[in-house]
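Minutes, project huddle
Topic: does the predicted pose make sense with flavin mononucleotide bound?
PN asked that the exact inputs be recorded in the minutes so nobody has to dig through chat later. Recorded below.
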Amino acid sequence: MIHKFSVAPMMDRTDRHCRYFHRKLTQRSLLYTEMLHCNAIVRGDKNNLLKYSPKEQPLAIQMGGSDPILLSEASEISEEFGFSEINLNIGCPSDKVQKGKFGAVLMKEPELVARCIKAMKNSTSLPVTVKCRIGVDEMEENRHLDEFIEVVHQSGCETFIVHARKAWLQGLSPKDNREIPPLNYKRVYKLKEKFPQLNVVINGGITSIDDSLEHLKYVDGVMIGRKAYDDPFILTEVDNRIYDEEKTFVSLDKILVSLLPYIKSEIGNGTKITHITKHLMGLFKGLNGAKDMRKHLVSIDNDLDPLNNFEFFLSKYVA
Ligand SMILES: Cc1cc2nc3c(=O)[nH]c(=O)nc-3n(C[C@H](O)[C@H](O)[C@H](O)COP(=O)(O)O)c2cc1C
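Predicted holo structure (tokens), as shared on screen:
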């Protein structure tokens, strides 16, 4: 299935509370977990790590790793947990990830990635997809990227999400690696031209639905990360403008009030309210009094009566 729009996996951001909130804004977008290492999925506390609300679906799990056996076991577990897609991270450039031999450094090892995908596909009937860059370091963007895609495609991967900039593996922080290497959207379009049978999803620096629609003239899907998190109202346009669904009226108060039952039930289960409300800050972007609203939300703490306090917040700021 082709997902024309998705919200990018982001560590420390797209946790289950964030995704539940995003799902209130868009029914159709594909959502992703943060990257989870296959070892943690296989050997860790699965029930806690992989917990999510069925309302978050369609939901893809993103994994890191380069051990075909562990990845295959993790894929089997992910299918049991009901995820709708399994994505392998070949784009993260952090030092820690490089040392663990996964993420972007694997762009230099297409055969190993192909073995991983093959093993994963053998243990699940779910789509197994790859998120990568247009290259790393000195990799020549044309020939090497095509070779990488060709080899990995032959192992059964049909969908490639491509962050349209290289990762520089030495000397740049992960944050800089999302900003400094130049964006090259045309390279991603060219990939789709060369491999028309593949689903190619473009990612990196996309900040509006207008721009997303423009990209969709050349590729199959668009993935947005930071803009969706920092200014989540953008997601309220997706179902209507990208998927041609009927326009629905969404407002700040409607969104916040619709989260109340979730917040109530999560608090009942011991979740700290700030673990949920921290993801809502972007909703107030550009509003008069945004600073006060954020300050108020941050101050709501589990030790006081958090639910009452949140309801007070609603009555004070949203009619
Ligand atoms: C805080 C943060 C955490 C991220 N964590 C992940 C991750 O876990 N897996 C991944 O593939 N990409 C991760 N990324 C990269 C994003 O998925 C995306 O590729 C990148 O931000 C470029 O898209 P954007 O310009 O729309 O944000 C992260 C990005 C940010 C800002």
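Observations noted during the meeting:
- Residues 222 and 300 are 36 Å apart (CA to CA).
- The pocket of flavin mononucleotide is lined by residues 8-13, 34-35, 62, 89, 91-92, 131, 163, 178, 203-206, 224-227 (CB under 6 Å).
No decisions taken; revisit at the next huddle.
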